[in-house]
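INFO  loader      accepted 1 record
INFO  loader      residues=349
INFO  predictor   begin
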Amino acid sequence: MIKAIKNKLVLLGIVLILGGTFFVSSFIKQATTVLISSTQSQTLESDYEYGELSPEVTALIPRFKKAMADEGMPEKFLPIVLAVCMQESGGRVPDVMQSSESLGYPPNTIGTDASIKQGVKYLWSNMKMVGEELVLKDEKYIKTAVQAYNYGAGFIGFTESNGYAYTPELALAFQNKMSGGTGNYGDAKYIEHVWRYVTVGKPGGDNSKPGTSAGKGQFFYPLPAKLSDISGFDYRYNPISLQYELHLGLDFPVAMGTPVYASDDATVMRNSDVGDTYGINVVLQHTKGGHWTRYAHLSRTSVSMNQKVKKGQLIGYVGSTGMSTGPHLHYEVMTSMYAGHVNPRPFIN
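INFO  predictor   done
INFO  writer      dumping tokens
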């Protein structure tokens, strides 16, 4: 009898051990599945790459990487951080992130390393307030955190009714609220201004949304050889009007009469005379991608209105017509006829 009981106890122990092993194994398997699933779900809908950065900001990239690592901020946000730096200072003052005030100091009273450290810390803090899972999934949540870099963290709470998702309307509404309707509070178009320095694209997709790149090198280079532009897609003092304004394209200094080529298959939508401030210029509506391109200050054209042209086809020659200070090609990329200007550089990289 005692022997039989012992045998049953031994059998029961084996069952419990096997059952426990199965339970632990199942738990580990399920936990691993959940972890992998969670990691896969935490992927931005868009990939970010560096936009057009000044040499000063480019030189600071290693220091930004270190500050982000120290704060535990994922490096995938580096292009966003650099774009904020471009908007805040272009890297041309010691307080590159203009972050001294968030420390309670007067403007421009801290050095570069302190500015980078505090700027990264403040932006990452905003992202965590919005929600790490959210900012890792979609840029509309990143934009809330970035707008709060300009407005202050109060903007994040203001977007709660919209699930912390950014919209331009919410940015304007917050400005009106804080300024009592005068508009004298922060920059309601801060996101638009920052995103000028970010290249956005979906891998393997056709990105034709306004403000985004359709992919590196999508367009045929408009000149016979690649060269550096003398004026980029950025705010500058207009050399003729002396007004501080956004330069809507890239200016390439080249010799008079240099051939100019179509960026892609298109229809000629404008073939103007010298009466235009752009001088003799050609505007093309491209067959795919939803983009328009403009080629300005030409000496003459070799196309006519409504003509169909092919990628790389000769369309004109460099000149200095219109509001121009010398021979060059002014090149623009737009998302509609004469509007929705975006940085051309990623298209012809």
